[in-house]
Every structure is written in C-alpha cells, then in structure tokens.
Amino acid sequence: MKRRFADARGNKDIINKEFHNYYINNDDFKGNISILKLNEVKQKWIVDEENRCILDNNYIWIEVYPDDKNFCITVMCDENLNTKEWYFDICKRNGIEEGVPYEDDLYLDIVIVPDGRMHILDEDELQEAYENKIITEDDIDLANKTKDIIIKEFGENIPKLRELTENYKDKLLRKKDKDEK
Question: At what angle do helices 137-150 and 123-131 cross, to 10 degrees?
Fold first, then answer.
C-alpha cells in the first residue's frame, strides 16, 4: 500500500511549492483541507483525450481529507482558479503526520471533470496489488464500496461536489492570504 501526503513530497515534477493545511470542524465538513500552490513545475501534466492540463506553474491544488471517510479529493485548479478536475483517491484510511494529511491509497481512483464526465482509474493496479498480496480481499471490497459511494454521492451530483469544494477553496485562499500578511 502506498502512502501519499498532501504536500506532494516526493513528486519530482514539482520544483517549488507552498503548502498550507487547515482543520475544519463545522456542520458542513469535518476534516483537513490543504492548499498546495505549485509555483514552479518541471513539466506540465496533460491528461485525457481532451488534453486537459492538471499540473503547471501557478496551479493550485485544494486537497480535501474528510474525517472517517475512505477517500480524499484533490481539486486541481489552473492559475485562474478554474477547476480542471476532482480527483478522488480511494484509501484505506486518512491520517495526519507532523501536520500534513495523508492517505493510505487503495490504488482505485475516480476523476470527475466539470462537464460531468467521470473516469474510473487503476482498476488493474487494484487487482495487481491484491495478486501481489499488498492488499487483502477486504481492501478490494472496501475500495469498490467506496467507489460506489463516491459515484452515487458526487458523480451523479456535480453541483453538490462543486458547492463543497468551491466554498472551501474561496474561504481557505482568503485565509491563507491573511495568514501570510
């Protein structure tokens, strides 16, 4: 199982970045939300058949780690804060280490783009991890159940996903700017 941190440590394509994490506890959301500002990258990341760019200089990733859920969401935004995609990492658990959120990744991912299209990724990696005894059959069941929950809760309700993430994106960027002054 691989552990991925919100501050993108180990990502060789990110040369210079800023990272801020906030814990939110209110009626709408409970968990960590991080801002990762990608000041300089070695190379752009272009994905999908429409050649959508998800990593470039001055892009911002908002990373949402809800407590007691088996997923986290990375909202990938361009330099003008336009959402390029919502990337769901399905995980065994979310946690925090030295102030930085992480997920223990279960390989299976879901991408939702603003026009509502959805892509399920890395089902082959999930199966390969099981065959190599990196994860258990229970982990596969958890990954698939979580996938179904995400599709039902967000894949069929883009306005709900947009409301959750846009609300916090604006608030946290204003807070980050205040904190830096």
Answer: 160
**CA neighbor of 123 nearest in space, from 143, 103, 139, 97:** 143
Secondary structure class of 100 (helix, strand, coil): strand
Cα separations (Å) of 11 from 7, 87, 134?
A: 9, 16, 22
pLDDT score at 116: 86
Which amino acid makes up residue 94? Answer: N
CB proximity list for 123: less than 8 A, separation 6 or greater: 108
User: What integer pLDDT is reported at residue 115 of this predicted model?
Assistant: 87
Q: Which of 48, 26, 38 is nearest to 164 (CA)?
A: 26
pLDDT in tens, 135-156: 999 999 999 999 999 999 888 7
Domains of the chain from N-terminus onward:
2-180 (2.40.380)
* pTM for this prediction: 0.92
- Contact present, 15 and 42 (Cβ < 8 Å): yes
User: Which pair of tokens denotes residue 43?
Assistant: 């190379």
Could you say which DSSP state residue 12 is in?
A: T
Angle at 96 between CA 19 and CA 3, to 5 degrees: 90
